[in-house]
Amino acid sequence: MPATYATAPAKVILFGEHAVVYGQPALAVPVNKVRAKATIFPDPQGASGKIILDAPDIQLHCEANQLSTGHPFSVLLRAAAEALNIPHFPALTLRITSTIPVAGGMGSGAAVSVAVTRALCAFVGRSLTNQEISEIAYQVEKVYHGNPSGVDNTVIAYNQPVYFQKNIPHEFIKVRNPFTIVIADSGIKSSTSVMVEKVRKNAQSNPLEFEQYFNDIGQIASQARSILESQDSYLLGPLMNDNHRLLQQIGVSCPELDQLVYTAQQSGALGAKLCGAGGGGNIIGLATELTAEKIASALKDAGAQHTIITKIDS
Ligand code: PMV
Description:
Layout: E1 4-15, E2 26-42, E3 51-55, E4 60-63, H1 72-84, E5 92-98, H2 108-124, H3 130-145, H4 151-158, E6 162-165, E7 168-172, E8 179-185, H5 192-205, H6 207-230, H7 236-249, H8 255-266, E9 271-275, E10 282-287, H9 292-301, E11 306-312
Parallel strand pairs: 3-5
Antiparallel strand pairs: 1-2, 2-5, 2-6, 3-4, 6-7, 8-10, 8-11, 9-10
Helix pairs in contact: 1-2, 1-3, 2-3, 2-4, 3-4, 5-6, 6-7
């Protein structure tokens, strides 16, 4: 039996990170230029249920049953087996590779969960709906950071731009005028759970102020949605700048991210903001096909480790 594989995209949050944890809407889009890949090699001689994990990017090579039951991969394999109603997978080696920066706010964890689940489905010749796959990835997101909003697993499992609000059915967005963004990686690793916790503590100390910040971010996400659906996408630029200012105010930016945002703005971006949990990770700048290379090169000169230029459409 030949190897089976599946891939899943990265994502960026265009608007609304952090406030989405408090019930405000967020807008997120898949980024297909970088992807997680899960490859399954069958082991016909192996005992049923024996799964060897091989994830060189995170120096993990072991049998799955050596991991603790709360390890993200244990949770993932258990959730997938349960959804597929399979007590034990046939013996296999699961190789996971990814071109998505880890701990950079691009959804690398959710992309791995989605790619692995799809590869397991293909391996056993069964299918799950996008919603089922998203729910499996959500179980794993909970291991990574306790109280995730669910935006990462949703946008990655469906691979479509999404307007996401907790506890409300998500809506997919038709982008009227496709646009270009530059993504720049500060190279600083950041933990989503640490940043979410930081915001929670800041909000506890200043509840009224933070309620206003979250409402303002939600307003921006909702305005951005109507621009995306019916107007020229360059109008998103000022909203990105406003969203970045609010993210500074809630305490999730850092000098390196501010410098990259400033560089993007000064080198021709129509707007820029950090994306994801902050404290490190990536920023995005709104560009055009003509300005994207120049912005990316300025960002590299300003210290970005990698840049990605990508088109956002439906
Ligand atoms: O995984 P990240 O770094 O893209 O952050 C997710 C976005 C947050 O709003 C900060 C957390 C969440 O659960 O939505």
